[in-house]
Amino acid sequence: MNGPDLLRRHAGRLDTKVGACYPGSHAIFRGHDLHRDLRELDWVDLYVFGITGRRLTPAQVAMLHAIWVCTSYPDARLWNNRVAALAGNARSSANLGIVAALAVSEATVYGGQAGMRAITFLQSTRQAVDGGAELAPLVLAEARARRVYGYGRPIHATDERLPWIMELAREHGLDDGPHVKLAFDVEKVLLPHYPQLRMNYASLHAALIADMGLSPREYQLLRIPTFLAGMPPCLVEAAEKPEGALFATPCDGVAYAGLPRRAWPGAGN
Question: What is the 3-state secondary structure of 239-258?
Fold first, then answer.
């Protein structure tokens, strides 16, 4: 089917398997009546069901809750929270501020893209090892060629969230999945050569979610709210401050190394 025929095929209609709303009657969510069949579902359970079309176990849902809780830092200095806070201080819409903060949470070095690359690396590496490849050469080649996402952390090499998440993973029986084991094995390979490349949060939660059977694309959708709960406190507090006062920087606080001051034609100086 060529382009015009394809467009005509879809003109005026929406083919969907995920659901539909019938105002005044009911709503369908992946084949279920949302209000009759799914109203008592945990929100995270519903969220994952919407992305994947399948249900996770109660232990897996509890693990996702913990992953999100343990990274909800209400610190306006963090790169994405700063966007939400500045929006609040500028008296912008709360929705706009939070959505903008979520958008920049896709950062490559320490945001969503890092997690995406971490889960992709873990899944592809596991396939290679299952196929007979040796782990150490794969990991060291990755480290030399680019960077091993999920290892290393700006400011401080130790990630304070890991022991708490692993404690909960053990409580839920999710601590010995193949990707979790692989994540720790990768760290063992890296540390003798790159002592600063300790495992960070991206690798651990990517491994836990990979063991739940999610693809990188599903993981990307699933992790959207990862930092969300830490954003509203920053916005609320910033909105209570005088407008423009948040992170105010005087001119003499800027280290300028550009061109010297010069006269502009017609400026009278």
Answer: HHCCCCCCCCCCHHHCCCCC
